[in-house]
Amino acid sequence: MKLLKILLAGTVLMTAAKTKAQTIETKKPDNPAKCSNIKEGKFLRANYPEEIWYMTIKDNVQTEYYNNGKDFIKSTLVFVDDCNYKAIVLEKSDKNDPTQIGAVFNNKIVATQDNLLKVNIKIEENQFDVVYIKTK
């Protein structure tokens, strides 16, 4: 009899846990992606404090700030379509930064969710993904 009560209590607890788990809604990426979110605003990178890096975009000019805002890289943005754009480096403050003036970064927004944007960046043969957090 004691074993039956334990099994019954376990079943009730598992059923309650499943019911609660089903009511928790997980966020899904925007469908379609809200690519226009990249066209203007202030952006942070996931897991980077603002003192290390942040970026602003306004009037098709992207400025990345480093070193507590003391250093920057400024690029012009050329949109190929809503989700694809090129960032062409115009100027930089740190002469030792390996980024070259005239370098072209090909960017593709692969997913968005609320204020998050996942961007695939290609330069020459290198490719990587970054997640931006739009703050303004």
Tell me the helix content.
10-25%
Number of helices: 1
Percent of residues in β-strands: over 45%
Q: From the alpha-carbon coordinates, what is the Rg to the nearest angstrom?
A: 23 Å
Describe the structure.
The protein is built from one helix and eight strands. The relative contact order is 0.17. Helix content is 16%, strand content 47%. An eight-stranded antiparallel barrel has the order 1-2-3-4-5-6-7-8.
Summarize the structure.
This protein has 136 residues and is α+β, with helices and mostly antiparallel strands. Helices cover 16% and strands 47% of the residues. It contains one helix and eight strands; from the N terminus they run H-E-E-E-E-E-E-E-E.
Task: Record keyword descriptors for this entry.
single chain; 136 residues; alpha+beta; eight-stranded antiparallel beta barrel; 1 helix; 8 strands; 16% helix; 47% strand; globular
List the helices and strands and how they pair.
Blueprint: H1 2-23, E1 41-45, E2 53-58, E3 61-66, E4 71-81, E5 84-92, E6 104-113, E7 116-123, E8 126-134
Antiparallel strand pairs: 1-2, 1-8, 2-3, 3-4, 4-5, 5-6, 6-7, 7-8
